Amino acid sequence: MYNQKEVAWVGEFFNAFSEQVNHSTVNFTYANADMLKSQSMPYSGDLPTLEDEIVVQESFLDSLGYSNELGQTINIPFSDGTTHDFKLTGILNVKTGDIGRYTAIISKELAEQQYGNNIGMDYYIGLKNAQNMSEEEATSYANTLAQQLEISDENVIVRSTYFNLKDENRGSDMLFYFLIGFITFVGSGIVIYSIFYISVASSIRNYGQLRTIGTTKRQIKKMVYREGKLLAAIAIPIGLIIGNVIGYFLVPAGWYWLTALCVTVGVGLFAFIIVMISIRTPVKKAAAVSPMEALRYSDYKETMKESSVLHRKITPASLAKMNLSRQKTKSILTILSLSLGGVLVVLISTMLVSYDGVAEARGREFPTGEFNIQLNANQSWDTADVSLAGLQKKNLLNADFVNAIESMDGVTGTKRWYYTDAEYRVNDYDDNWIYGFAKEDVSVLEENLIAGTVDYNELVSKNGIILINDTAENLSLSAQLGDEVEVDFLTKAGQTITKSYTIMGIVSNFSHPAFNMCFAMPMELMNEACGMDCSGTVSVMAETNKSDTIEASLNQLIDGNHDLVMDTIEESITYYSRNQQLPFGALLIVAIIVVCFSFINLVNTTITNFLSRRQEIGMLQAIGLSKKQLIKMLCYEGMLYSVFATFVTLVLGAGLGFLCVQTVAKTINPYFYYSFPWLVILIYLAILLIVQFILISYTTGNLKKQSLVEQIRAME
Hints:
By secondary structure, the chain is of the alpha+beta class. It has 25 helices and 18 strands. Strands 1, 2, 3, 4, 5, 6, 7 and 8 form an eight-stranded mixed sheet that branches. It has a six-stranded mixed β-barrel with strand order 10-11-16-13-15-14. Helix 11 (about 315-325) crosses helix 23 (about 625-665) and helix 12 (about 330-355) crosses helix 23. It is elongated and about 105 Å long. It starts with 6 loop residues before the first strand and ends with a helix. The model is unreliable at about 380-385 (pLDDT under 50).
């Protein structure tokens, strides 16, 4: 394989064994550098080559009380009471220690020493130019290579998911990033528009003076466009360089210079177009002004609808409403900008708070209880590759063991879960592992019943078995009521026997602490066939305020028994919650950036209005507008922006959030339940009010620096 010219890399992988170390599960695995790279598992230092060398996670070293200094000898205690010394040659940069699971990389020499010729090494082959290869081409080459190396077809697997996901992910990922980029461009475009609008508004007099000495409209346009192009020529390359550097360091293995170059050019052109579109209106305004208009220019020149009312009461509130209505376009843009950021924050926050990590832990691993004590197959240093049935022969989860658990202070009950690694065959499909269920589980099965029956006694009397439809569909297993299922069991005597069962019921799902399986049968039939108790897990129910004490007692109970391992619901919740928080947390950062754009736009709009109205405000003060009334007027203006933006944010954000949660719950993850993010909304509104307060303080403070005469003459 290594000498084939079509092969880019060969990953070697062997899952040697797992051990309980300080009540955490440690998977001891052999993998070469290509394998770790393909699985996005970076490391520092060197991979182990000798039997006493090892690479572990830094968090695992912390749990043992060691520093991360390479070359030191670390002592690892195993659950059977033995200890093993290893020389630390590297650090595996994978963060999983806080959920009670660690990975340790051992040497190939150690794996071969433990297993000899029985080592079942897996080889992962990466083909050159695989990203441009079809599944048929890869399969054809794999089969040809297998024939040359005399490898049987059953030992060759072409990962269809790679080719399926490659195209799907490429399209979906590109669409996702395009949407994020587009939203960012829209936000930045509004800010650019506002900034140039301010620039043009403050320079109108200068443009008028240039017109008096012969400057044409076309020359004015070229001058403003040139300013925009110069700023774009400086800022866009800086942004592209920073973006490329960040992108490379985020995913070094996914960096392709040709793709990066094409995307960089495309983004650069798109950004430039956004700039040109954003400054188009300010450019027109600058070019359209005449010398006479420039002398008396005011930012508010839109035609106002005349009122039929001869006498109108002028109040701070009416003035605020009038000011916003005179520049409807700019006011609407500002409100939309604030709303866009708010809607994104509400939408993504809704997804975050609507996820229920406890429900997922319950649904997948802890249907009952807070602790799972289970048989640890394929785990031991000296007894590796032990089957589940082999451990069940020892009857470790016996009545005395369960009684010892139930006698602990704070334990409210236990439940046995049944399953075994029996092999089954149905309709030319074969696989292994089957659930067993007790009479008390029938009510749960009835809730998920699709067809047939789940009556316990009827299934026992007629040798019936139940099909788990969701798992069967995922594994492309086609079966229906009445089909025969042949099952090979390993008995307590060490013999393999074959029994036949009839599919008498179909259920959508069966909540069980073991991994997903296709079939379930009454535990009575399973125990009878194997000639032993097929318990694989004991769930422990505990009082909430005594969980820590019970966990310590359970750890003490299984200490020294490497055939038993324990998982806690807290570890499971942490694991599943992290999986959801990472992607939505990244999206929330994008939303916050958009909110920052919207606040910048609010600041620009407020300052523009203020600069354009200093003379007007001075006139109002001259005819009796008090400072208190002025502050009220400015407050009302800010409140109008905030009220409209908040209304749009709440309506659209809540609506889109509800739709997204429902969609995700139905298609991707059923453990999303709609919840409104009140805290996030309150924080957003508080920040909005603080920004408004700062702007009001700035504008009123600026007016204090000038006398009324100076304000009135400011535009002369």
